[in-house]
Here is the input.
Amino acid sequence: MKILLTGATGYIGKRLLPLLLKNGHQVICCVRDKSRFNYPHTAPGNVKVVQGDFLDAQSLENIPEDIDAAYYLIHSMSDTSGSYDKMESVSAYNFINRLSRTQAKQIIYLSGIVNDKSLSKHLSSRKAVEDILKSTEIPSTTLRAGIIVGSGSASFEIIRDLVDKLPVMITPKWLNTKCQPIAVSDVLEFLARSLLNPQTYNQSFDIGGPDILTYKEMLLEFARAKKLTRYIFTVPVMTPKLSSYWLYFVTSTSYKLASALVSSMKIEVVCRDNRINTLLHISPMTYREALERTLKKIQQNDIVSSWKDSLASSRFTGGISRYLKVPKKGCYIDRRKKEIIDREYTIEKIWSIGGGTGWYYANWLWDLRGFIDKVFGGVGTRRGRTHKNELFPGDALDFWRVVYADKKQGKLVLYAEMKLPGEAWLEFKIINNTLYQAATFRPKGLSGRLYWYAVLPFHGFIFNGMLNKLIK
Here is the structure.
């Protein structure tokens, strides 16, 4: 079968693609920016990539007409504009208008559980998209999930950050709200087994694991899984805004995402029935089993995708392609070079930079810069990195974004996502056994020029020290 997969570079899309290929399907991946897409190692001949922006109806003409079914995995919850609900509706209308001119026999949409009369903006938006998809003659299947437990999921990473960092937590009262978490592997199974299954046509299903827990119970169970002792006290005085700031400063999430999650976490997300389990012959794993499986994946450095790599929460507009070429005109550039001793060693060091490894020299200054960025509403350094020693275009790397990564060529280009009075790039490239390192800054107005000269004294030992560590 020929399957259209939208959101192929997203958290779920990246994980669903190998499963579809394993099941023998040909997959058409529709992505906003081709330079972000990384072909899977298996069956690359069964993957075709088309570029299309669902906010631009004309660009969707690249989608072929001879598709059998389509997965709609487009979400904009962490978009910094704050109007993600309008964006999601426009995207959904453009999607069904294009799909109505194809041979598609089914649309599969992953949504959120919406069994409360008073929905958050996030869940209302998901419900609106679901209604739009149902308005076409093509049969649709909606799978509604609550908290998804898996390495790299936004909800799981927030839980991990809170438990790892805080032995004692003074928390808002919404931690007593009930939810029904589900393992990401079970979500993928539901998505895969619903494909072209007539019994799922024109229906909406709630999917969840067997456990109904409060968020407080989820945190404490995570602590037990990691053999940690944690104490949690809930108080009624934390407003949604204060709760959002609490999550923003303690965890790696952005403020926009924290705000959206807080508004949703006040509402119970419990499955109304589990008939789809019998229908598709799936027995979801327990929350504890999902935790143990996820922690094992993290320990093995086997993280397929992460919410942090989504461009929706970045400073990018229109993808990463326009940032590939590092400018020179009107820029300040700190250039350094040094002859390398062992090419493979240096490349491995470059590709392992940031995250838990650090920046090899004066890490406390990098951490300080990240803290300052967080205070002023930036991303900070808490995002870390998804893979321990691999980098791909579009990956988040502390307060940088990977815009170019070619390990064989020995070239890595990073674009700064911290709050700056201008734009910044950090570039590494190896030519003829020489490592070239360049920090480029394009200032914006007088404040940008003053900023460059203010940090210039630190460049000498920070960048020179890092360069030496990358070689020796």
